[in-house]
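Entry type: protein chain
Record version: 2
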Amino acid sequence: MARDRKPFRRRARVTAVCAAALAIGASVLAELPASAASPPKGHDVSSHQKDVNWSDTKAGGARFVYVKATESTDYRNPYFGRQYGGARTAGIIRGAYHFALPDRSPGATQAAFFVRNGGRWSADGWTLPPALDIEYNPYDSRHKCYGLSKAGMVDWIKSFSDELKQLTGRRPVIYTTAHWWNTCTGRSRAFASNHALWIARHDSADAGSLPAGWSFWTFWQYDNSGSLPGDQNLFNGPQAQLRRFARSQ
């Protein structure tokens, strides 16, 4: 989800993905219940999608969406207000996400910027907890972990999370890949107990890979294209559970 551009990733049919998630069952991921043959579908969008037709998106099966709000402390998605408000008007549960650049400023500073520019939360049942998108550095391949040590990265994420909790009452959902997390945090288990996981894994054959500490995912981004605008996602549970998750931790 970096830089509002879409990298090439493998494509998968949503039916195959749902089947794969169900097949994993109660193994490594403690996955979807057997009754959840059709887990809620969702997606995430940024300025790349511009003005989304939210009525069509809802008709196409979207039940939730994450909208990019900010990046570092100097970027605000110019379409955020229309995307975020449009999703709510269409009856889609929505949340905001922040793309982290840990080499630019402290975690608390970026969290405060995020909250001021769309990253708030309310217990109305329509607002997902704010999300932290943290992945390999898209601007400098020589410093994939942003020049931070493993301990420094853990401290940065903790600073972001603590500030967000103070300002909104919720810990961030953490969007990441297993490879990035285990490489750049040193397989830290410090966040799994109180942070929901949004796993980015675009090959259904590898869907069982999770960052250290987590035993299940809450959201799974499984493809970067499909029937819904932007990246394709699933929620790990029925619709009623998604609404409860939006209301409280």
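Comment: Residues 11-247 form a domain with the TIM Barrel fold (CATH 3.20.20.80).
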